[in-house]
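Collaborator request, handled under Task 6.
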Amino acid sequence: MMHKDDQKISWFQRLSYSGFRWFDNKPRPGILKLLYKADIQLLPGMFVGSIVTTAILATVGAFIVSWIIFTYLIHTSYSPILELVIPLAACGGSIGSLPMITLNKITAKRVKIDAVLPFVLAYMAALSSAGMNPIETIRHVGLKDFGPVSREFQKISYRTDILGDDINSAMSFVAQNTPSDSLHDILIGISNLIASGGNLRSYCEQESHELFELKKAKVKGFIDSLAAFSEGYIGGIILGLIMGLIGIVVMGALGLHLLSLSTAALLEIFIFVIVPLVNGLFLAALEMRFSSGEF
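Structure tokens returned to the collaborator:
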């Protein structure tokens, strides 16, 4: 039985896709590859239609709400500007939200793959040492719970068992569409090893050791970067804000004024504008530095 949330999602997807069916009349390999990497099961037309439909609904809703607020509740000379700016901001935010969510899912998937991949290779080396052949080893990893790595290996089994691809073609396809460069290189290496009849155990042991060393270096880099950011925040931002607050108080005690503003006005601007803005910029810098998973 379909849940109520599923009905809402299906209704929204049908509405979004109804005006963008024509978008799928031509191949869209770029969008398909993006959705495939994010494990999002949507057609390109439905994806683009969802973006446009969300933007339209958000813009109309923001305009109606802002018009009601600034017409009946809040009266200001800036009301016409705010009634225009708020819907435009809602439109821009809604247009960028779904692509940003998709890119964040791809980044999160890549980080998870890179985190568990050394352990997967060690597990594959153990299976190979027990006498399991490479193809069965790949199937076995797909049946285990290694998160997105298992799902990538399941795609290989799906392409060989359901679509009829040979193992090398299936591994090459998944390698070209995985968000992890490390997994891409591993799959290409295993494919070449299967074609040449090499030793999977030694290959997995070597790659696992290299990835463990790389993981240690990345963790150390993360700790060093985080320490640098924390020292900069405490020694730069916190100290600067304290000195700015002291400066405003001293100016008020000496009767000095900045831009003809009173001490109370300067304190309000400092507390409610400058402090949140500086902290927001610092959080944005943290997000840009660490969101990619590259430390």
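The cover message to the collaborator said: "The first helix runs from residue 4 to 18. The chain has three domains: 4-108, 111-214, 215-290. Please let us know whether this matches your experimental observations."
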